[in-house]
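User: Show me a protein chain along with its predicted structure.
Assistant: Here is one chain, sequence first, then C-alpha cells.
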Amino acid sequence: MGNNWAEEDLLSLRERVFIHIKDLILEGEFKTGDRLVERELAERLNISRTPIREALFRLESQGFVKTVPRKGVIVADISDKEIIEVFTILSSLEVLAAKLAAQKLDDETKSKFVEYCKKVEVCLKEKNDNDFSNLHGELNHLLYSSAKNSKLYEILSGLSDYIRAFAKTGYKNPGRPVQSMEEHLRIMEAIINQEIEMAEYLTKIHIENSRKAYIEAVNQVKKSK
C-alpha cells in the first residue's frame, strides 16, 4: 500500500485507512496491547483524525481493537488459534474453488489460466518482489471467479483483507514468494488439465505452507520488539 493519503476522495480514503491499519495489526507491526492514538496515527499518515476515528470504530466492531478505560483504544489479542481458524476456513473454501474451477473449465477460462501461467513463469524468472505481491491478488481473483459460484466468490472476497495480509507477511520469509508462485503455477496447471483431485491437494498444501510462513514471520516480528 502506498503512502499517498490525499483526501480528495474521502470514501476511498476511509477504506484505505481501515485496510492499512488492519494490515499493520495482522502483520504484527501493531502488537497486542499497543495503544492506537488518533492524533498519532493522523500525524503518521498526514491526514485528519476523522477517517482514523472511523477506521478504529470499524476495527473494534470486528474485534481487532478494543476500548479500555483510562487507556483508550488498544490492539486486541488475536491469538494463534484465531489465525489458524481463518486458515482452516480458507483451506476448505479455496480447495472447493479449485475443484469447481477444474470441473467447470471452459475454453475462455482455460485461456486465462494459460495466460497467467505464463505471467507466473516470467515473474519467477525476474524475481521481482512487487510483482509477486501484485500477482498474488490477481491469481486469487482468477481462481475464485473461475469457480463460477457467486456465493463462494462473495465469501472468499470478504476474506480478502486476511488473505492479502497473510501473503504479504509470509512473503517476508526468505524464499517464500518464489515457493508461493511455484505452488500457484502447479495449481493452475492441474486446473488446466482438469486434474480435480490434484488441484484440491495442491491448494490444500499451498494454504498450509502459507499458514506456516505467516506464523513464522509474525513470531519473528514479535521477537524483534
